[in-house]
UniProtKB/TrEMBL annotation:
GO terms for biological process: cell-cell adhesion. It is a single-pass type I membrane protein. One of its GO terms (molecular function) is integrin binding. Keywords: Cell adhesion, Disulfide bond, Glycoprotein, Immunoglobulin domain, Membrane, Repeat, Signal, Transmembrane, Transmembrane helix. Residues 105-188, 215-295 form the Ig-like domain. Residues 1-18 form the signal peptide. The chain crosses the membrane at residues 300-321. This is Ig-like domain-containing protein. The gene is icam5. It comes from Electrophorus electricus (Electric eel). One of its GO terms (cellular component) is membrane. Pfam families: Ig_3.
Length: 346
């Protein structure tokens, strides 16, 4: 591409001084389609012609412009040459027309190298994009995408101009965030500076990946205080792919199992229910455990006993107080009665 750009720059700089003018100064043409270009001069001459394997134009003296016109170009390395025999010059002026002949791919597809089925989180995998029957390969760019995010560009330096099959690779290490992600590749032909816009492209079908990853328990419960004779529920939930099985166990005995989430209910808890409960999430060959300590909460019982004792003491004091008041009243009444007895006369 740099060579062609430099050549075009030289042509444009010297067009005012050179008697041979090409229009356009370079052409981009798809293999098997039509192409045309003009060669002209403002100088007097003895003849001008297009020298080319396909569509040659014989020497003509009576014109200032000749056209190379081809209905179907079938030469991958064609090099049209316009030459003019300028008067008063010993040698003819010549100019080559730069021609880029291209072919879009027959097919573009991607795959995981030496692997089928789901991928495992954290492992390395190689994706391969195969581009079939494309030319010229040195103008090919393979672009890798995840969703709509561009991940990588791959360029090629092979100078062959005829169609070839070409491959590009991408290394990935998927995470759980990549589950159900679409990876795809795109073949693009860079045909500057005379390229059609937009440039010729072809996309592969999306490669949708399933990521298997270890279960992770998301519940945050570590310990529970349970009032005696009350009910309590222990919840355990986990995320993973495939969906994990969640199991509660106590004293090495499985109590309850569930898919992704499991709830263990303890009714009328006593000291026999106190201890370490284990939640285990399993999926494929992975497992994760979390322990929850269940302890009896005697505060309610102690408070209840204290209240009962307080009430009993209060009642005892109240009864004693009432008895004391009653006895005092009787003594006072008796004393009053004695004071009111009449005196005997002498």
């Amino acid at each position: 591409m740099l060579h062609l750009t430099s050549l075009l720059l030289i042509i444009l700089i010297n067009v005012g001084n050179c008697p041979v003018v090409l229009q356009p100064p370079a052409v981009v043409v798809e293999y098997g389609t039509s192409v045309s270009a003009n060669c002209s001069t403002s100088k007097p001459h003895f003849g001008m012609a297009w020298e080319v394997p396909q569509g040659a134009v014989d020497l003509r003296e009576d014109v200032q412009l000749i056209t190379w016109n081809l209905s179907r170009l079938e030469d991958w390395d064609i090099k049209p040459l316009c030459y003019i025999n300028i008067k008063n010059q010993t040698k003819p002026d010549k100019r080559h027309l730069p021609v880029i002949v291209y072919k879009t791919p027959d097919n573009v597809y991607n795959s995981i190298v030496n692997h089928t089925g789901p991928v495992i989180e954290g492992r390395q995998y190689e994706l391969q994009c195969d581009v079939q029957n494309v030319a010229p390969v040195h103008r090919l760019t393979v672009k890798w995408y995840k969703g709509q995010t561009l991940l990588k560009d791959t360029f090629f330096n092979d100078s062959i101009k005829t169609p070839v099959n070409q491959s590009a690779t991408l290394q990935i290490s998927p995470s759980r965030a990549d589950d159900a992600a679409d990876y795809w590749c795109e073949a693009e032909l860079r045909l500057e500076p005379a390229a059609p816009q937009p440039p010729p492209t072809m996309k592969s079908n999306p490669l949708n990946i399933t990521v298997h990853y270890a279960p992770q328990i998301v519940s945050r419960m570590n310990s529970v205080l349970v009032p005696i004779f009350s009910d309590v529920s222990l919840n355990c939930s986990a995320e993973g792919n495939p969906e994990p099985t969640v199991m509660w166990s106590f004293k090495n005995q499985t109590i309850i199992t569930g898919r992704r989430q499991s709830t263990l209910t303890i009714s009328r808890a006593t000291s026999a229910n106190a201890g370490i409960y284990t939640c285990t999430a399993t999926s494929l060959s992975w497992s994760q455990t979390r322990e929850v300590k269940v302890e009896e909460d005697y505060r309610f019982l102690l408070i209840s006993v204290f209240i009962i004792v307080f009430i009993i003491i209060f009642l005892i004091i109240l009864v004693a107080y009432k008895k004391k008041r009653t006895r005092k009243y009787d003594i006072t009444r008796n004393n009053n009665c004695m004071a009111m007895k009449p005196l005997k006369n002498n």
